[in-house]
Structures are given as structure tokens and as C-alpha cells.
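Escalation from tier 1.

The customer reports that the assembly of three entities below gives different C-alpha cells on two consecutive runs. Tier 1 could not reproduce it. I'm attaching the input and our single run for tier 2 to review.
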Amino acid sequence: MNHKLIYKVLIALAVFSLVLSACGTKAGGKIVTFAWTQEPNSLNRSYSSMWYQSALIQVYSCSPWQYNEKNEPYAFMLTELPTISDDGLVATMHLRDDLKWSDGEPITADDFVFTYDMITNPANAVDSVYPYDKFTVSSPDPLTVVMTFADVFTPWMSTIWQGTIMPKHVLQPVFDTAGTIDAAEWNMAPTVGCGPFTFTSWESGSTLRFDRNKKYWETPAKLDAVIFQFVPDDAAQTAACLAGDADVCFWPPYEDIPAFREAGLNVMTEPSGYNEGWFFNLRDMATPFIKDLNVRKAIAMALNREANTDLRLKVVKVTETFWDALPAYVDPGITPWPYDPEAAKALLEASGYVDTDGDGIREDINGNKLTISEGNTTKTERQSYQALAQQQLLAVGIDLKIYSYDSDILFDSFSAGGPAATGIHDIYQWSDVPAFPDPDSSYWLCDQMPSDANPYGFNYFVCDETLDALFKQEVVTSDPAARMTIFHQITRYMHDNVYYLGIWEDGDVWIVNPRITGAKFSGVTPFFNISEWDISK
Amino acid sequence: MAIPNPENPPAAIARIEKTQLTFIQLVWLRFKRHKMAVAGIISLILLVLFAILGTAFTTEAYSNITDTSIRLMPPSHEHPFGTDTVGRDILSRTIYGGQISLMIGLIAMAVEVVVGVLIGAIAGYYGGIIDSLLMRFTEAMFNIPQIPLLLVLGKLLADKVPPLNLFGREFSGSVIVIMVVIGLTSWMGLARIVRANFLSLKEREFVTAAHCIGTRNGPIIFGHILPNTMAPIIVSATLGVANAIISEAYVSFLGVGVRPPTATWGNMLNGAYQYIESAPWLWIFPGILIVLTVLSINFIGDGLRDALDPHSLVESK
Amino acid sequence: MGRYIIRRLLQAIPLLLIISIVIFLLLQSSGDPLATMGGRRTVRPEDRARLARQLGLDKPVYKQYIYWLAGNDWLKIDFDGDGIPETTGTRKGVLRGDFGTSLVSRGKSALSLIGERLPNTLILMIPAEIIMLIFALSIGIYSALRQYTWVDQVVTTGSFIGYSMPIFFIALASMYLFAVNFRKWGLPYLPTVGMFDPKVGKTFGQVVLHMVLPIFSMSVVSVSAYSRYVRSQMLEVNNQDYIRTAHAKGLTDRQVLIGHALKNAAIPIVTLVGIEIPFLLGGAVVTETIFGWPGMGRLFIDHLTRSDTPVVMGILMLISVAVVVCQLITDIVYAWLDPRIRYS
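Tier 1 run:
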């Protein structure tokens, strides 16, 4: 009696599921699906720092100027690119007169001033006020916005107005009633936008859908809708793109790239300013070994960085400096550190590090073993790199101890004992970027050293007077040629002193289904031409 | 007819007395009747031998040697289990990973047994307020689902313990953390059983007699009552090892467990997930080893349960 | 009975309090929610200080717990950073139903986030539990009635293997077979990610289709474990004298089974199921992660790794409350099933 029942149930289930799979017909319309491995935590840029959120800005919002596939800026909402006065303190934007929100209201300078007010208002718990606390804003007429800086701020063009412009007529009432826009519905459901698509729906954990903006102030988009599907991890993302369930994938593991090529998908790379590298910690608490320049030089020569790009199937190139994505700012006279383990060994021998007890690890004259520790995040690729580095350094007699942390623990604050902030390791590896496409960076400023008095400083590396002076100088030098010279000095100095060792260029990698035409990507504003994307039948 | 003399019993009686079995022999006889349990013991011994004797054929350094030129190679002559994403030999990693997984299983079980027995014994023996408090605490811990609690504790402690050196090998601090954390999240069931047994056993005459002659509480608990409640403890301990190995696999799979480069069967499965089709040897070997080990232990535990106390009401889960 | 219920509910209150304190303390020391607010860069010191103040993270731990529990709209806080507390707080606290706003998705309250994901978990778990019960009961009873036949041996061995496998192993194998290989062989294949196909939308057919693989993976483990338990309970009951009497009286096998054996075997099974149900809400974390199911398990792990205390606390407290309530209901059902049990 019982097993007949079981068989019947099983057969019914099987038939049911077969029927259902046939029922899944695809809806009509030109829709592009993106596989997104992280779900944004907000659709208001001021409340989110995730890359996976900022990439969406060009879809449902708009920026005064955008960057094309060569990472060059071009005027978008403005009549021309913004101008700056000779003393570098006053910047002006002239808006076009045909700008409209998706509900028909015009976009004016008032919206920009309102956005500025909301970000800088202490009642709003925005992620960061940078760089809006460096200037004040005013609008002499509805189509002009004037930004007045307190001090010269050279990276202004790559940092301001790159988030979501907030519609004053929608959010001002919210602010007036609640005293803050933290809980505004618009943050999670921006139905009023100014991009080629407008927000339609957000199914938590599943999808984010935007449909064509019918009242778009520019040429209307060719696609009917774009959908972002949230997948749990890289494996699911790869599977989705290979199966054709998703049309576009971002930043897949490099091991999967041959599979994508085999399946006939387009692999497009775009420099984004990010470089993966080793940051050397030369603060007081680091071991004396890492402070020895000869040891650092030996490390640079012991790593077979070229061969290690095997991890990324040799698709990336090895970088030398933090600014390799902006070659104009890099000193052309820098020669890359060669892979020369013999020279590394010779250098260590000459500096007094000899292996006296035959265990393969060198000791200094006092008998202390040459041991160096490295901190890293738990990303699989980084852990693989650590394993390779460990072997390569062991070959020249350096013992590398490896530690991995979740990112929110690695980057924990000084007062909470975060490993990077408290400097307990000698080397840190992660991917980072200057203010791309501007070269400015505050990483090596002496006043950014974390301490009890300054617990949130983020110079986890070194306070070098010469370097500090150079950085302080570049940020106030408005003459581009002079600034470039200063950066040549910076890159040269950091290279010769091995304060930073480049691993590889961490550009954006996009996998695109060939049925999509016209797709281009930018390293700064990824979907800058999404209104021109089309589907070929 | 001669009067029976205890010093020199007649032959028939002597035979009967000689064939009286000790408790251990009785248990073993009943255990042998379960063919699967015996099969479990054999396969477990083989697996343990694999993990221990394997060190005679390969060194730990070898299992960490990376060579990206031979990454993701299928099983071959020099690499019988293939190579992983950075070119490490999977066979030697399963050997050393097996040592760590088994060790985690044993020590987590030890933590679980020690905590569970202590809390159950003290609550059951002293009763009253102590019992109430301890049982409320046990219930509180019991009410929190295990995997989320493991995740929270694992995240909390994972990076706070430094690596240590034992027997000339270096273990990542997360190994210690996982052992302790798994033990600390699975003692509740055992504590309840031990407490229930103590509650009933402490009313028995042999305990009253011990009190009468002035034995202190400690020796009564550990010397008199505890030996009588060994059966459920042994069964729990055995199944606890299996549970610990699986919990470690789950937690490492989610990325919160043992951190590389220390290998365990569990964390070899993390990351192998992407190669479900292209490099199945990455997940098949550690996966099968986990299943075999846990299966053997479950068989053994089942056999022990029937052998030690055929009428026991220890729950199976 | 009424007094028993009230007593149990009252006892539950200190229990829940202890649980909340324990978890709160654990979460405080594990990671910094502000650390990842810089995105791929590190957070600026000024922003960090401001955010800590605005989100209430600069207060000592015990104060943070009190605000979580009882809110802060009964005192003034320093909102604008000038050091003078002059604005009244806005939080009502858990005791009044306000679980706070998520630290990660700062526009949403913890309850609304959980509320969005809870139905998804229930949609997955309730059918899973029903299917699992049906199969476990049928297999267990069948196996007990045919003890020592070859069918019983096969089922026993099969269930041992079933619950010795980690669930992700089963998930991997089933994905490999039913999704990857079925697609290769041109058969209709099952989807492996998410709750529905985005282009088609969240229709009934889509959701059911996407449920098949996750439920299958979960069932293999649960059915194996439960069927063994059912089997051993049935065996124990079958050996009782009253069953023998019933047979002797001339009742058919079926009447004996349904009228006598099942009811008595049901009691411990009910206990087990009753205890398991609230843990469904934890949503099998691993299953949801593998299959990308947008449920509470995934919410938990996503927000735990970003140290989002309000959401994590909300989920765990909800589960604990559910456990307490379910245990109570189980005890009541227990008493109803077995007239010998009476609570004082």
C-alpha cells in the first residue's frame, strides 16, 4: 500500500515539474539581464559606498559630466565641461536648459544645491561627506552652479557630483516632515530619476528592474528594460552567463575566462585605476627586518610576479607603482624590479642575513630568524597569491607568515584593534586606487597615521618627511605640468625605497553576450552609454 | 551428595562461572551482531590509517608546495588525486587535511563531553536553584540554532587566536577556535541526558550508602554515579565526532571556518564549488572522505547504542 | 493547564533576555560595521566619527544594549556633534516592537528587511517540511512493518548514507545531474539559482520550479534522519503488549496500525517536529546560500559578515521567540495526544 503511494507521488511530481518548465516562456521586449554578485544596500549614492551601487548611477540617475571608454570626461548635463578660475578656488557649471526629471519637472541648479545641503547636513547619516566639505555652493541663476573652495583641491573634477543628484521637489517635503532623509522611500525606490531608465521594482534578494524612461531629456534608450539579478557568488554568476540566463557578468574569476571565450562571449577589459599591490608597513611596531631597505629590495626581486599572473591566466600586466593606470604621472625612468632570486640571495648575504642552522631560513647577526608577516583578505585569489609568495620567498631564505581576515575585520579601526590600523603585520595586500582619474592620494600623509589621538587615520604604512612634503605640494599645485613633475618624483621615490610593490593591474572585466550591440564601458562611470545598447536578433 | 563447597565447586557450576562474561565482553558480543557497525569500525580504522600513515609517503611541506604551471590537472601518476587551483597535490592535502579534520572531530567532541557532563552532573546532583539556573542557561543555548551560532562565534574569535606550534607543525589559530566553538555549541543535548540520569540515580541506595559512610560529593559524582551513566555519554561522544566533522565542513564551506593554508576536508570544498563541472576531482575526493568517515562513525554509534543498552531511549538524530 | 501555560510564558521572559544579552555581546566584538562603509577605500576619519555618532555606535556597550531594548526617545542625544545632547532620540526599542534600522541598508528598518525575506523562507520551508514528513512517515512505517526484509536493509543503509552527507555535497551532486547534465543532454532541466527567472517574473510556476532542487537536497538529509527515528519508534510500539492483544482480538493489520500503533508512536515524533519547526526560520543557511534563495538564511549571513547588529539580533530573537512558542504548543499537543500526561 505504502510504496504504491510513494511511486504515485514521485511520478506526479516529475510530471508536474516537466510541465512547469515548459510553462516558463520568456516575456517579450528588449531586456538585458546583468548578473550582480552583491546586492546594493541603497539606491541613493550618499548612503552606499558599494561599487555595485555606484555602477548603477548612469542607469537611473545622471551626472553633470561622465567619462567615456578612454576615461576622458565629457559634458553630459552641462553645455560644456566645468571651468575653474586661475587661482583654482572657484569652479562653475552651466546646465543645459532642457533637463527634466522622469515626472516632467525640470532639473535646475536648485536640485544641485539641495543635494549639497542634504549631504552636508548633520541630520543625515550619509556614508561620507567627502568632498562636499571642501567647498560651498551657490546658484546665481537657475542654470548656473558655482562651487567655491576654501583651499586648492586639485582632484575636484573626479570627485564632486559623481553620486545621485537628489530631486528637491520629492525629498524636500520628506526632510521637512521627518527632519532627515535617512528613511526616505526614495532612497530605496527612486521612482523619480533622470537617467535613461527609471526604477520599476526591487525584489529583495532577487532582482532590481529598471524600465525605459519615456520622458528622458536625452535620446531615449533603445532597450525596453534592464534587470539586475543577484546571484550568491562567482560560481553562480559564471553559470548564469555561460548558460545565457544573464547577458552581462562583471569581474569573474580569471579561471573562468577561457570557458567564456569558448562559449563565444565577449571578454572586455577596462582600466579602472585599481591596482593590486603590497603595501609595506614601516611603522614603529613593524619588525626591524621590513624596515631594512635591502630586505625589501630582496623581496621585490624574489617574487616571480610575472609567473604569478598565471593566477589570472596572464591576462593582466604586472604593475610597478600605485599610479600605473595613469602613465602620464609615472616617472618614465623607473625600471621594474626583475625576478632575480640569485641577486636577492646575494643582497641578503651581503646585508648580514645568513642561514646558520640550515633550516632554509636566514638569521641576522643576533640569530633572529628573518620572519615577516602578511595580512590579507579572505578572497580566494589573494589566498592563492599568498601561497605562491610564501614559496617564492622561502626559496631565498625569508619566512613569510600568512594571515587572512574578513574585510570588515581587516579594515577595522585603530581603537577596535583592526590588523591594518594597528600595524601588526609587515605587509598588506589589497587592491586600491588613487582618486582616479586624478592621481591624488592621502595614503602616505604623515598626519593620517592612526594613534590614540587620531584613531581614524588611514596611513597604515610609513611617515616619510620627503614623501609627505611631496604629497602636500601636489594637492595644491594647479599647474598640470608642475603637478606631473611632482608625481614623477613621488613614483620614483616610492619605487626606489620599495614602499609599495605592484602585483598586477586590477581593471574591470566585463563578460558580454554577443547578442548585445553597442556596449562600451568606462572605468569611472561604467554604463555611460547604456542608452545606446541594443539587442541584435 | 556432597555439600557444595565454594572453594571447590562441582564441574558443571565451574563451567558456568567461567563462561560468565564481563560487561565489556557482553557489549562486544552484542556489537558484533550489527554487521554494519563492524564494517564501520573497519572502514574508520582504514581512514585513520590513511591520514596517519600517509605522512610516511609525503611531507606537510609538500602539500603546501604551489606550482601554477600544473594547476587544475586531473588525476595522474604523480598526482593521484589531481592538483588544485594553485597546483598543490590534492592527495597529500587530503592526508594532512584528514589529520586536522579528525583532530577537530575528536577535540570538539572532548569539549562537548566535558562541558555537557559537568553541567548535567552538577545540575542533576545538586538540584534546586543550581539546577534551575543551569537548565535555563542550557535551554537558552539550545534555543539558538547551531549554524548561525557557529557563524557568530567563528567570526568573533577567528582572528583573535594566533597560530601555534605543536609537534613541529604549525596550525592556524582558526583550528583551535573551530574546535572550541563546535564543542561549545553541541553540549546541550548531552547535558540534558546526563542531568536526567543523575536525577534518577542519586535517589538509589548505593548513593545513600555512600553518603552514610561519609564520602564527599566529588567522589560520589565521579566515582559512583557517573560510571552508571556511561552508556549515553559514550554514544553521544561517538555521534559527536561525526557531528563535529560535518559542522566543520559546513562552517568552512561558508568561509568562516579553518583558514588556509591549513587544509581540512571542509575548507577544501570551499572554492571547489566553482569547479563542479570543470574539475570535479577538487570536490569529489574530500567530499567522499567526509561522507565515508561520518558514515562509519554513525554506524559505530548506532551499534554502540544497541550494544550498551538495548533499552536506551537516547534519541537518534 | 491554563496556569501551566502562563507559568511557561513567564519563564520564557528571562530566557529571551539572557539570549539577547549573550548574542548582543558576541556581536559587539566581532567586526566593525563602519569599516566597510568606505567601499573599496578606507573610511575617512571625519566620516567615521560622524557615522559612529549618528548611528549610536560611539556609546558604551551596555548603553547600546539598553537603547536596543528600550529605545532612546525618553532621553536626549547629541545629534549634531557639538557635544550637547539636545535632540530627543527616535528609537522605540524592541520592547515596543522597534528592532532598529539596519546599519547596512540605512533606509530600512530591520523588521521590514526581515519581513521581505520571511515569506520567501516560509515558501521554501513549509512545503519542504510537509514533503519531508510524508516521506519520513511512509518510509519509516513501511520499513518498521517489514523489519529485517531486504527492503528494510536497503532503506536503513540508504538513510545512513543520506544523513552522513553534508547538504552541500548533495546539492552539488543534484545540481550537477539535474541542471548541468540534463541541459547537456537536451532534457528539460531544473534551474539552480534564485526564486524565479527575472525575465518571466515571480509567478507561481516559476517559484515551484525553482523550489525543486533546494527542497530535494534538504529532504535527503531530513528524510533519512527522521525515517530512522520513525522506524525505531514504530518498532518499539509494535513490541508492546497492547499491540499483540489487538492482533489477538482479530483486528486487521491496518486497523492496528492506524488505531493503535500510530497514535502512540506519534508522541515523540510530534516532539521532534515541534522543536524543528522554529529552526526553519533560520532558513537553512547553507541551502539558501548555495541556491541563491532570497530567504532569511541568506539575509543572516550577508548581514552578519557586515556586522549589521540590528538585523542579526532581529533574526535570532525572532527564532528564539518562535522556539519558545513552538515548544509550548508542542507540550500542549503532547498532553492532548497522551491522556496520561498532566501538567500541574
